Amino acid sequence: MAPRPYHLVLRAFLLGEHCEGYTPFHPDYAFLFNSYYVSAGPRHARHQRGHLTRPGADEITAYRRHVDAAVAKFFHEAGEEKLRAIVPLVEVGLNHEQQHQELMLTDILHAFAQNPIPPAYDGHWQFPASNRGGDEWISLNEGIHTVGHTDDSFHFDNEKPAHRALVGPVRLARNLVTNAEWLAS
Question: How many CB atoms lie within 10 A of CB 56?
Answer without folding.
Answer: 10
